[in-house]
Amino acid sequence: MLEKMLNRNKDVAWRVIENEAILISAEDSMLHSLDEVGTRIWELADGSNTVGAIVEKIFEEYEVDRETAETDVVEFVTNLASEKLGLLLLSQSE
Question: Which parts of the chain have pLDDT scores under 70?
């Protein structure tokens, strides 16, 4: 999974308010909020970063060890992808 590119789904509207991203899913019109770290992952999911690169940035920017950063990022990405909230895993060739 670490080699996959991460991109936001264009069908999810979002805005950052006071360091927290608010997402609105087109599928169910539900409002979802992300904490500061989730918001940072969301911002980095612009189609130019792999999951591994995002793990490195989280490790560098927050007081967390690399293993915890990897576990947390992968779990976050998996949860949002399974809920169709906007994170798409793409192979690097896509």
Answer: 86, 88-90, 92-94
